[in-house]
Amino acid sequence: METATAAEKPCDFEAGNLCLDFSNTAEWHASAHPLESLNAYADLVSWSRAGGLMSDEEASALLVEAARQPEEAARILAKAIKLRETIYRIFSSLAQDEKPAATDLEELNTTLAQAMARARVVPLNGGFGWAWSREEPVLDKMLWPVARSAADLLTSDRLERVGQCADDRGCGWLFIDTSRNRSRQWCSMESCGNRAKAKRHYERSKRKDVG
């Protein structure tokens, strides 16, 4: 996988679901040459902070711990990318009306089991809600809500609305299609959608010239 700097690939949280946002941290994911944005553990922390998965203080504590345990930080980064690719394959398959591989579901369940061991029921807004163990610092803590998000999406009625950018160059961007008739095809009309529109216009003009 090729690499992208933070300036080239800013954090994007517009897929409509956390686990899909995470899958989109590789650009041109369906192409022969995906562009990687998680090139260091610090990139993973930056993405997590931008997505509201941790506070500035928690992010700083993780970076300090990562500097103290560089080998463990590298292992967690590899684990994160493995989870991302698993999530991408699962939802990319479903977006194309195909069954995900059993091995990918097994991999997700392994990470989910580790994550849910850290889940807690706590008082919240006069009732109760889910929260995560606040043991500090745990270098893979940002993967817990991502795995939970994937499981929640797989078991929800929103699953049928998972879509994938139809760009023929291999954009591969995943999203929740909130259009009324589920007609969304592109990551955005400003990028891949606009290119497809221009391409169709060019082909129509070319056919007219030939005719």
In short:
The protein is mainly alpha-helical and about 210 residues long.
Biggest sheet character = 3 strands, mixed
Give the number of DSSP strands: 7
Main sheet: strand order: 1-3-2
**The CATH topology is what?**
Jann2411-like fold
Instruction: Output the radius of gyration.
Output: 19 Å
Quaternary:
single chain
| Helix fraction by DSSP (H/I, runs of at least 4) | 40-55%
Structural class, from secondary structure content? mainly alpha
Order of helices and strands: EHEEHHHHEEHEEH
CATH architecture: Orthogonal Bundle
What fraction of residues sit in β-strands? Answer: 5-15%
Q: Roughly what is the average pLDDT, rounded to an integer?
A: 88
How large is the count of helical segments? Answer: 7
Number of domains: 1
Q: Residue ranges: pLDDT <50 for 5 or more in a row? A: 5-10, 198-204
CATH homologous superfamily designation: Jann2411-like domain
Roughly how many Å apart are the termini? 44 Å
Keywords:
single chain; about 210 residues; Jann2411-like fold; 3-stranded mixed beta sheet; two-stranded antiparallel ribbon; about 50% helix
Task: Map the helices and strands.
Layout: E1 2-3, H1 18-23, E2 26-27, E3 35-36, H2 41-50, H3 56-68, H4 70-95, H5 102-116, E4 119-124, E5 127-132, H6 143-154, E6 162-164, E7 174-176, H7 189-210
Parallel strand pairs: 1-3
Antiparallel strand pairs: 2-3, 4-5, 6-7
Description of the structure:
There is one protein chain. By secondary structure, this protein is mostly helical. The protein has one domain (2-182): Orthogonal Bundle (Jann2411-like fold). The chain is built from seven helices and seven strands; from the N terminus they run βαββααααββαββα. The strands form three sheets. The protein has a three-stranded mixed sheet with strand order 1-3-2, with no helix packed on it. The protein has a two-stranded antiparallel ribbon with strand order 4-5. It has a two-stranded antiparallel sheet with strand order 6-7. Strand 4 (119-124) and strand 5 (127-132) form a beta hairpin. Helix 2 (41-50) runs antiparallel to helix 3 (56-68), helix 3 packs across helix 4 (70-95) and helix 4 crosses helix 5 (102-116). The relative contact order is 0.14. Mean pLDDT is 88; it is low at 5-10 and 198-204.
